[in-house]
Design a protein that fits this description.
The protein starts with a helix and ends with a strand. With 174 residues, the protein is mainly beta. The protein is built from 1 helix and 11 strands, in the order αβββββββββββ. 17% of the residues are buried. Keywords: Signal.
Length: 174
């Protein structure tokens, strides 16, 4: 057995010598490669209000009517005995933040009732509308520009004054 191991050892030594010669003599060679360690932390979904829903200045006539603010382009339209009288009508605007291309669901709370400052009268918002679907994706940066329009019911000879009320928007992410 001593001879057999000796014979194998000589073959191994010869293979090492040939490999060493092929690699450039007796110099050892090494190469280095770099890998990147990565992690993604998602910020919790958040929503920030940028502006309120404004129906603008209105003139209430002897007949009831409605005022509608379009969620897509802030345009205002009126029906019935309601006239538009300036102001700055606009849809409410929110930015929602989350992960890139994150799937979300947008819901609203109860429809608001606008109450006159000092009391004495109210007006109901009969609908709130979004500038898109209730199910959608955030953009590649994880942001969505969410706008909310609505329709306000104005009574016949509605009492003059400043009216306000609030509503909630909830964004759920998956």
């Amino acid at each position: 057995m001593g001879t057999m191991w000796g014979h194998r050892s000589r073959r191994a030594a010869l293979a090492c010598a040939l490999l060493s010669a092929a690699l450039g003599g007796g110099q050892a060679q090494a190469q280095t490669e770099t890998a990147v360690a990565k992690a993604i932390t998602l910020r919790p979904l958040s929503i920030v209000k940028l502006r309120d829903l404004e129906f603008g200045n209105l003139i209430a006539g002897p007949a009831a009517g409605t005022v509608t603010i379009d969620a897509d382009d802030d345009s205002r339209s009126t029906t019935g005995g309601v006239g538009a009288a300036g102001g700055a009508p606009q849809a409410a605007q929110f930015y929602t933040y989350g992960g890139p291309r994150q799937f979300i669901y947008v819901t609203r709370g109860p429809l608001p009732v606008l109450t006159r400052a000092g009391g004495g009268a109210t007006m109901n918002v009969s609908q709130l509308t979004l500038n898109g679907a209730t199910f959608r994706y955030l953009d590649d940066a994880g942001i969505l520009d969410l706008r909310v329009g609505g329709q306000l019911n104005v009574g016949a000879n509605q009492m003059a004054g400043e009216y306000s009320g609030s509503f909630t928007i909830t964004v759920t992410y998956f």
